[in-house]
Amino acid sequence: MKRSTRSAAAGSELLLLGAMLLAWCPAVTLAETIEVASSILTVSETVKVPAPEAGVLRELVVHEGMRLEQGATIGEVDAREQQLSAEVIEQDLAIARSESESDVRVRLAAKENKVAEAELKRATSINAELPNTVSTKEVERLRLTMEKSELEIEFANFERDLLAAKLGRIEADLRLAQHQVEKMRVTSPIGGVVAELFCEAGEWVDAGEPIARLVRVDQLRVEGFVGIDDALAGLVNRPVVVEALLPSGETIKAEGRVVFVSPEAEPVDAKVRFWAEVDNSAMRLRPGLTARVMILDAAAGDAPVQPAAYFAN
């Protein structure tokens, strides 16, 4: 009887323990979400656009605060010298193309060969009927003339092939010259906002001297610190939800993903720096704002993120 009572009690304890474990499982999932109370939003990409070559900045078509697409024109360094060089090469190309397409020299050499062959045949025919009418020296001269005309045909064909090769080289020179002209146009390497201009139209610029500074704002970076234990949990590529408080008091939420976790910990507090890229296509967030970050469980990346669900007060 005592054994039965003990068995029943043990069974009840196991059932209670199982219920407690089931109730505790959701808490484990929530514990995998890491909250970073204070982080800062920064630009994800900033570029100083240099002058391609030394020269006068002929035009500058942007102003500070202007939004640019990738490849948009910022300005142009004076390219008139390069343009003239390209025009000269274009003329050389037209001449070379005309010469390579002409077969006049080949046809002329062929005609001369026919004449020389006919004269030699006539001389040998006369000597066949009337021996020694045409001297041996004259026959040899006519034979030499005919052989020379055959070589002139070969040389004319060789010259034509050479002109075709020369044509290809001039075409390459023209492409290079056109590239030099295009190179003088200053373009935006990224899509972003003109944050700063370093010179004005009409000024001399040296090769490599910065003309403008662009920042990308449609995607921001949120930087913060996590504990070393959290950093070891494999944060890279985990989804994040960011909450930023605007000066007006309005709260903006955005989504992103962790892209970097520092391999080093701070010696004072053992915190590890990380950053995540945050979508700002709505252009409501600004670099410099402080933000609260929730680093979600990696499994949350497979389901749509609901930002409001992670910041319920």
TrEMBL record:
Entry annotated with the keyword Protein biosynthesis: no
Domain Multidrug resistance protein MdtA-like barrel-sandwich hybrid: 46-213
Keyword annotations from UniProtKB, A to Z: Transferase
Keyword Transferase: yes
Sequence ranges assigned to domain CusB-like beta-barrel in this UniProt record: 230-295
GO cellular component: efflux pump complex
Gene Ontology molecular function: any one: transferase activity
Superkingdom of source: Bacteria
Entry-linked InterPro entries: Beta-barrel_RND_2 (IPR058792), MdtA-like_BSH (IPR058625)
UniProt xrefs under SUPFAM superfamilies: HlyD-like secretion proteins (SSF111369)
Protein's name according to its UniProt entry: Dihydrolipoamide acetyltransferase
